[in-house]
Amino acid sequence: MNITVYCGSGKGSDPAFEEAAVKLGRWIVRSGHGMVYGGGNVGLMGIAADVVLAGGGEVTGVIPEFLIEHEKGHEGLHTLEVVKTMSQRKNRMMELGDAFLAMPGGTGTLEEIAEVISLSRLRLHEKPCVFYNVREFYQPMKDMLQAMVDADFLSAEMLGRIRFIEEPEELSGILTGNR
Q1: What angle do CA 64, 91, 82 make, to 5 degrees?
Q2: What angle, rounded to 10 degrees, do the helices at 86-96 and 107-121 form?
Q3: Tens digit of each residue's pLDDT (9 = 90 or more) over 90-116
Q4: What's the angle, vertex CA 95, arms to CA 89 and CA 110, rounded to 5?
Q5: pLDDT recorded at residue 113
Q6: Closest by alpha carbon to 54, among 74, 82, 80?
Q7: For position 70, what pLDDT does the model report?
Q8: Is 152 helix (H, G, I), strand (E, B) or coil?
Q9: pTM
């Protein structure tokens, strides 16, 4: 399977975020999966990609032309697809992914995972949507989603399909449908 990873182009302020990117990359390799991501060579995205590559795993990046300089398009990938727009990037990453995972990141990360969750809610895909809740980074999101259920804007069934994990190993059960 290809795991589409959304994460920060920065490392964040907590060293646990960098450690989590390393753990995720190692898990992807051990599990025999590929990684799809935004194609940069900076921040958490670059760290995770480097770990997968170092372990012999396959990594596909998708980057818009205008971000190649800023995010330092990763030159060591198996495939680096260059597109024109952010919308094309998001769409291509969704096409290539069999599951979607958000690591800690900023507004871009949030926008990307929110879109795949919305498309899942509309039944346009049945692929897993997961938040890697490093040091409870996504606890406010979990609370917000519960508030949406409580206010009758989101079904409890849909909330149950959005997963929050503390460790990459938890993905195994999610990807096989056993959790």
Answers
A1: 25
A2: 50
A3: 999 999 999 999 999 999 999 999 999
A4: 55
A5: 98
A6: 74
A7: 73
A8: coil
A9: 0.94
* DSSP notation for 55-107: TT--EEEEEEGGGTTTTT--TTSSEEEEESSHHHHHHHHHHH-SEEEE-S--H
**Residue 29 Cα distances to 51, 52, 98, 121, angstroms:** 8, 6, 16, 30
Sign of the C-alpha dihedral computed for residues 100, 80, 107 and 118 taken in this order: negative
DSSP 114-127: HHHHHHHHTTS---
Q: Which residue do the tokens 């990763």 mark?
A: 74
30's enclosing H/E stretch is helix 15-31
CA distance 5 to 103: 7
pLDDT > 60? residue 179: no
Query: Which amino acid type is present at position 6?
Result: Y
Model confidence band, residue 72 (pLDDT cutoffs 50, 70, 90): confident
pLDDT band at 75 (very low <50, low <70, confident <90, very high): confident
- Measured on CA atoms in the order 94, 21, 73, 111, is the torsion positive or negative? positive
Predicted local confidence at residue 178, as pLDDT: 56
Give SS3 for 153.
coil
Q: Tell the burial category of 178 from Cβ atoms under 10 Å away from its Cβ (0-12, 13-18, 19+).
A: exposed
